[in-house]
Amino acid sequence: MMLLLMPLAGWTLADAFRQSVLSNFDLRLSAYVDALAARVEIDEQGQLEVQQRPEELRFGKVFSGWYWQIGHADELVATSRSLWDTRLPWSRPTGASSRFSVTLNGPRDEALRGHALSMKMPGMDGEIRLLVAGPLEDVQRETAQFQRLLVAALSVLGFLLVVGFILQIRWGLAPLRGITRDLHAVRQGRTQRLGTALPKDLYEVAATMNEVLDHHQALIERARASAGNLAHALKTPLANLRLDLEREPPDRVAMRADLKRVDELVEHHLSRASAAGRAVASRQTALQVALEPVLSAVQGMYRERDLNFVVALDAEAVWRMDAGDLQELVGNLLDNAAKWARHRVELRSAHGPDGWVLVIEDDGPGIPEARLTQVRERGVQLDEHEPGGGLGLSIVTDIATLYDLKLHFENRQSGGLRVQLDFAGMMGD
């Protein structure tokens, strides 16, 4: 933008300088007119005469470009020697006062700048006209010299600005080039994270990208661990199936139990993989809307027990989490609470200091303190060793880990279990 404005700025400065030089030139001519007017007198015969004519060399050299003349009516009274036998045209602009500046042509058709004065003297009829003129070339020469200096200065300034812009861009883009190199290094496997020795704004970008890279790395490691766990978990039921098939006759009841276990293990690990995929790019989910079908399903499952479900969900609670993951997470927790509740299950949301929290409580027997300590330490598979156990809360733990949710278990003083999910940093924009 500055480079585009520089020609306009140069033209403005040059024009202002030309006006200033012309104004100063007019002041010099005006001073000559005043000095000439002071020498005009009326002699004893009532005629005009000039006492002590100006003797400056510029007015004495013929056709020097500097001239003066005094006229009365239509007659010339006196002229400078430089005019020789010629005269300057007298032309007062329309509406001009008794003193004015004018541009005119000289004896040799050169451009002149003149300053004129019309005055009256006692005993004289009509106006006395005084005119002093100088070469306009002096103004043009001084202006041209300034313009050359200005063009040179602006050219140097423009060059320095271009060089400065290039250096600034190279310096400003250097951190981005560093990020690009780090990304290539990550792609080639030479490193796993981006460097963070960056300006503040780019530091936040690099830190966010590192979080994404860490998350993807965690997903890869979790997938490897899940594959290993699945292979290890399938060894026992597959070995049992082999033994059952070798029996005569085959034990079909045992085979069905082993096949059911295999199906549960496969479904469990598929659920983990599905949750991991959805957690990569989660969307905003309204809590109240997403959990309505879950509540209806759980209430329907335990309708015969006549449980009292107390629900208090904030309509403004919005979380950056896939709706399916949220439903599976809360659904498993509600199912576990309803399974052990005597009369009452409570589901409520609240806004804590770090974000939204979701609380699920029941009035069941709770968990023995020794086991509760293990749950707090491991945070996994609360109900796997209880009657009717399964893989539900293991999936809950996996989903909570994927979204970096804090999962808390504690016994209520009045009896029952209290589960709290902290959604710090998961609030919608």
UniProtKB/TrEMBL annotation:
Leading EC class: transferase
The Histidine kinase domain, residue ranges: 229-427
Entry EC number(s): 2.7.13.3
InterPro entries reported in the protein's UniProt record: HAMP_dom, HATPase_C_sf, HATPase_dom, His_kinase_dom, TCS_sensor_his_kinase
Stored SUPFAM superfamilies: ATPase domain of HSP90 chaperone/DNA topoisomerase II/histidine kinase
Catalytic activity: ATP + protein L-histidine = ADP + protein N-phospho-L-histidine
Name of one Pfam family that matches: HATPase_c
Transmembrane segments: 149-167
Keywords: Kinase, Membrane, Phosphoprotein, Transferase, Transmembrane, Transmembrane helix, Two-component regulatory system
Superkingdom of the source species: Bacteria
Domain HAMP: 170-221
GO cellular component entries: plasma membrane
MF (Gene Ontology): protein histidine kinase activity
Main location, first listed in the record: membrane
Protein's cellular compartments: Membrane
GO biological process, one term: phosphorelay signal transduction system
Designated name of the protein: histidine kinase
Organism of provenance: Oceanococcus atlanticus
